[in-house]
Specification:
This protein folds into two domains: 105 residues, Protein of unknown function (DUF541), domain 1 (Translation Initiation Factor IF3); 100 residues, Alpha-Beta Plaits, CATH 3.30.70.600. It has a four-stranded antiparallel sheet with strand order 5-6-2-7, covered by helices on one side. It has four helices and eleven strands; from the N terminus they run H-E-E-E-E-H-E-E-H-E-H-E-E-E-E. It comes from Sphingobacterium bovistauri. This is SIMPL domain-containing protein. Keywords: Signal.
Length: 235
């Protein structure tokens, strides 16, 4: 068995060496390809933390985390969030300090909610008792067509690399043959390209016919870029 593995290793080394030698034997031109596209994330992840609390500081009137959690759940369902898109991320506890009684451990829970836009956010949060709302933030973005976007941009970047190689080859009176090497240097991680939400006022008519303001939220588009290194045969 050991002898077979040794033979396989030697054979693989020989084939790799031959492949490298064949590439080195070509006259070649190395270029870079580039493609970009501006897109707006259509998947937004919200992080919302809820906590237990006492009504008006009365230690006998504790509002349990399950009560505040139900408020969040009902409000999220009302704006169209799917049940499977609301999950618990983490569970914490904290000490509630009171001068008259020993400190008590209260619960806090962090939830992740997946939404398609932010326009129902204020409506959802209005349904939660503010005393039980600890924090809210946007934890991440994504796109439902990410794989298709990657394919589109990589294809365009490879074509751009070939086009650049053709320009260089033509300048020397040559032409381009097959591609010998392609290196993909692109990054499509939406988590590292997090745009910030922007807020603006929209004019609306209230029931009395007058003008009122409502807060709308929108996500700023981000620019996806793709970089390709290509080595082409030079004829």
């Amino acid at each position: 068995m050991k002898k077979l593995l040794t033979i396989a290793f030697l054979l693989g080394t020989i084939l790799m060496t031959n492949a490298q030698t064949n590439i080195e034997s070509f006259r070649k031109v190395a270029t870079k390809g580039y493609a970009e596209k501006e897109v707006t994330p259509d998947i937004i992840y919200l992080s919302i933390s809820l906590k237990e609390f006492y009504m008006d500081g009365n230690m006998k009137k504790k509002v349990f985390i399950e009560t505040v959690e139900k408020q969040l759940f009902d409000a999220a369902m009302a704006i169209g969030v799917k049940k499977e898109d609301l999950t618990i991320q983490n569970i914490y506890s904290y000490n509630y300090q009171d001068k008259k009684k020993p400190s008590e451990l209260l619960q806090s829970r962090q939830y992740r909610i997946k939404v398609a836009n932010l326009n129902g956010l204020h409506t959802m949060l209005d349904q939660i008792d503010p005393r039980g709302l600890q924090s809210t933030s946007i934890s991440g973005y994504d796109h439902s067509q990410k794989r298709e976007l990657e394919k589109e941009l990589k294809t365009a970047a490879v074509k751009d690399a070939r086009h650049n190689a053709e320009i260089l080859a033509a300048a020397d009176g040559g032409s381009i043959g097959k591609v010998l090497v392609i290196n993909d240097n692109s990054n499509f991680n939406f988590a590292e390209l997090m745009p910030q939400p922007r807020m603006y006022k929209t004019a609306m008519m209230d029931s009395a016919g007058g003008e009122s303001s409502d807060l709308s939220l929108d996500i700023r588009p981000i620019k996806l870029t793709c970089y390709i290194d290509g080595v082409f045969e030079l004829k």
